[in-house]
Design brief:
The complex is a heterodimer.
Chain A: H1 4-14, H2 20-24, E1 31-39, H3 42-46, H4 50-57, H5 66-80, E2 84-91, E3 97-105, E4 110-121, E5 125-136, E6 139-148, E7 155-168, E8 173-185, H6 188-191, E9 207-222, E10 225-238, E11 244-246, E12 249-261, E13 267-279, E14 288-302, E15 305-319, H7 339-342, E16 349-359, E17 362-372, E18 381-390, E19 393-401, E20 409-414
Parallel strand pairs in A: 1-3
Antiparallel strand pairs in A: 2-3, 4-5, 4-20, 5-6, 6-7, 7-8, 8-9, 9-10, 10-11, 10-12, 12-13, 13-14, 14-15, 15-16, 16-17, 17-18, 18-19, 19-20
Chain B: E1 5-7, E2 15-20, E3 23-27, H1 36-43, E4 48-57, E5 66-76, E6 83-87, E7 93-98, H2 100-109, E8 112-114, E9 124-132, H3 135-141, H4 149-157, E10 166-174, E11 181-182
Parallel strand pairs in B: 2-11
Antiparallel strand pairs in B: 1-2, 2-3, 3-8, 4-5, 4-9, 5-6, 6-7, 9-10
The chains are: A mainly beta, B alpha+beta.
Chain lengths: 416, 190
């Protein structure tokens, strides 16, 4: 109660106080000429959302509102997960006008847990991945665990450790070193499939454990073109015999991303990529092959609707291990079909297209594709489905288009 | 006629105490607080809140007899390169087009503590404190619903944060009957 008298004395008078900026900052009479985002690291400001960028742009031409700047600085900081965002107001080029500069200061040390994949398929069971990432500045260290029977021919379970520096050469280069160690489980349909890698030897071609060390560097060649180059040192422990084979390969990926905004809130997005994994004896590999994969994704959105078309094609030349084989009939390609029914060993040729229409949370999709090996007949298959998605959660029901009995595949997942 | 008593001061500034009508006021012409980080923020177009407090004690600060906190908001006109000051509270006042020293003087000139009831022959001490509010504290001490008094007192009760600018000066022992009493604002201009 030491200060009770003070409280009573000042209470009524001080309650008259207003917000400091709206009435008391003499610069509020000036008009905003431009708004800039400046950062120690260009990568810090690159990820700002379209919505927030729009709000920054809308400040131009308005009278300076310091409270709005404070609010936007808070939102930028929250969105970019950076240490601090401050703003400066400078004289503009013209009298009575001012420039606003938001200074973005570094990413703080933080730890984030994430679920990169969580999926249940009525044909195929669960697939999931969890990861924890510690970030200090532009450097990140990730440890994770994976158990995935969806993506490849085999089910693989194990750990992933990854070091990344996301800002080298003034943000133009990114370095990543990833280590993976997995144990494999093979479906009976795969091990019993005719034409398996070992031919007459029932064990050949299958492996019980797989480790991979993959250092790669990514360059921003010229926005929006990004090139990734690295080496993959893959070790396969044969199963059941304890023999180790190497599948060391050069890995290269070239990606292009472009977003085009129309005049009526229409938006188009292009994302295309080509990747090559080339294993050669020069790298000490027991396998020699070249795995090519290309994909093009086009998104057109207007209002609450969105159309997405995703085209993928792939080719493997040479003898590749099973984890490199292409797969159709999983949760992302030719949904509704079973990968073991289409090709239990995976294929060395692939073409697939997925067309999806989304309206708010609802979506319908049409997948078509073929997977084959040289000498086989190419069979184009189709599937259709419906689903809902919101906040990273999705559920879908997919139907294979074929004659005879149709069993739909139900899938549900998150953050995928 | 100006009346004052030069008093001992802490830091570089000397504190002058003025008995103006019924109020005690202070002056410190050598005190310059529009410097460093607060000045940088002002020149970046932001407004800066300064919290001032005058404390009176009759036992050399063993206990506090009276306390008068005030809040001032400074801003700097980017085009005219002049300062503007707003004193918050009843009869909110604002001046603009001031040089930095004129803005500082106006701020001190608008801090007063009632001397009524104070025995003229009893020694007393005055402490003047001025602190630039941290940007994150500004909303807490000044908002639409008014100042959070608990917060304001807490701010002056605790040590300033590292690099948080603060100025303190003390005067005393003083006797009211040794201070010439003046009437009229002219006496405040020293």
């Amino acid at each position: 109660m030491r200060f009770a008298w003070l409280v009573s004395m000042l209470g009524s008078s001080l309650l008259l106080a207003g917000p400091p900026d709206t009435e008391t900052n003499v610069n509020t009479r000036y008009t905003v000429e431009s708004v800039e985002l400046a950062g120690e690291n260009p990568a810090d400001t690159a990820d700002i959302s379209k919505g927030l960028r729009g709000e920054l742009t809308r400040l131009v031409g308005e009278k300076l509102n310091p409270a709005a700047l404070d609010d936007l600085a808070r939102r930028i900081r929250r969105e970019l997960h950076v240490r601090a965002v401050t703003h400066r107001v400078l004289r503009g080029q013209k009298p009575e006008q001012v420039r606003v500069v938001f200074d973005v200061r570094g990413r703080p040390a933080k730890f984030e847990a994430s679920v990169p994949k969580l999926l249940y398929l009525s044909q195929g069971g669960f697939a999931g991945a969890v990861a924890g990432t510690a970030t200090v500045g532009s450097q990140a260290l990730t440890f994770g665990a994976v158990n995935d029977g969806d993506e490849l021919v085999e089910r693989y379970a194990g750990i992933v450790a990854r070091y990344e520096d996301k800002s080298l050469l003034s943000g133009r280069m990114r370095l990543r070193i990833q280590f993976e160690s997995y144990h494999e489980h093979w479906d009976q349909a795969t091990t019993a499939a005719p034409g398996r890698p070992g031919g007459a030897d029932p064990a050949a071609g299958f492996y019980g454990a797989r480790t991979n060390l993959e250092p790669v560097a990514t360059w921003v060649v010229a926005r929006p073109l990004i090139l990734t180059v690295g080496v993959s040192f893959e070790r396969l422990q044969s199963f059941p015999a304890a023999r180790t084979e190497a599948a060391n390969a050069m890995v290269t990926t070239l990606r292009y991303h472009r977003r085009l905004e129309g005049s009526d809130a229409n938006q188009q997005e292009w994302d295309a990529g080509y990747s090559l994994r080339a294993a050669t004896n020069l790298l000490g590999s027991d396998f020699a092959y070249a795995r090519h994969q290309g994909d093009v994704r086009y998104v057109y959105s207007w209002g609450r609707s969105e159309i997405v078309d995703d085209l993928t094609a792939g080719l493997i030349a040479g003898r590749a291990p099973l984890f490199e084989q292409f797969v159709l009939g999983n949760s992302s390609m030719l949904r509704g079909w079973s990968k073991f029914e289409l090709d239990p060993l995976g294929g060395s040729r692939l073409v697939h297209n997925s067309l999806e229409y989304r309206y708010r949370r609802l979506k319908v999709f049409y997948d078509s594709g073929a997977i084959w090996d040289p000498g086989q007949t190419v069979v184009l298959r189709h599937s259709v489905g419906v689903g809902v998605q919101q906040n990273g959660l999705f559920a879908a029901l997919a139907f294979p288009v074929r004659e005879g009995r149709i069993e739909p595949v139900f899938m549900v997942g998150m953050n995928y | 006629m100006g009346v004052c008593l030069s008093a001992q001061a802490f830091g570089a500034a000397s504190l002058t105490v003025i008995w103006d009508g019924d109020d005690l006021r202070v002056a410190a012409p050598q005190l310059h607080f529009l410097t460093g980080k607060p000045l940088e923020r002002l020149k970046d177009g932001a407004s800066v809140v300064f919290l001032a407090q005058l404390t009176l004690t009759t036992d050399h600060f063993a206990s506090i007899q009276r306390r008068a906190p005030e809040r001032f908001i400074f801003s700097y006109d980017l085009w005219e390169e002049k300062f503007s000051v707003t004193k918050l509270g009843p009869g909110q006042r604002m001046v603009s087009h001031l040089s930095s020293s004129a803005a500082e003087a106006w701020c001190l000139d608008n801090i007063a503590m009632s001397a009524s009831g104070l025995p003229q022959d009893r020694p007393f001490w005055l402490r003047f404190e001025l602190r630039a509010a941290e940007p994150k504290d500004e909303a807490a001490v000044i908002g639409e619903s008014g100042v959070n008094l608990t917060r304001l007192i807490e701010i002056f009760s605790r040590r300033p944060r590292d690099q948080q600018p603060q100025w303190t000066a003390e005067a005393g022992p003083l006797l009211l009957n040794e201070l010439k009493r003046i009437v009229g604002r002219a006496a405040r201009i020293l």
